[in-house]
Amino acid sequence: MSRDIRELGLVKTYDGYMPAGGTGSTEPVLPSVARLVREFVVEVRLAKNLLVLKTSVGSAQPVAAAMDAEDWPEVVGTLGGDDTILVISQDNRTAQQLARRIEGMLS
Questions:
Q1: Which CATH number belongs to the domain containing residue 72 in this structure?
Q2: Which of 23, 24, 35, 82 is the most buried (most CB within 10 A)?
Q3: DSSP assignment of 72-101
């Protein structure tokens, strides 16, 4: 549990656990994209400059949000459904680089 608390960026306060860097934040803190990919992505499909990531049911939105928060240069944008994420890259080469990055997180 302490690892989860650390990965979520929480600190213990008098009122309980709060996001680090401010107690008044209403923005949810996401786990690392590497952790979310490792836990929920089951398949990476490459189609020219597009990636289709298959996730477990109900997991696509948090994974897509974490990817957007990373601000990776290979990612133009993401579109998350229930169990599928569409990731758009600038070109075929950057999509291949991104696919390798994500597949590396799966190992």
A1: 3.30.1360.40
A2: 35
A3: -TT-SEEEE-SSEEEEE-SSHHHHHHHHHH
Number of helices and strands (H, E) in the chain? 4, 6
The pairing of strands 84-88 and 77-80 is: antiparallel
My answer on whether 48 and 69 are in the same domain is: yes
Q: What is the pLDDT of residue 24?
A: 52
CA distance 10 to 25: 12
DSSP bridge partners of 18: 11
- Domain of residue 23, residue span: 1-30
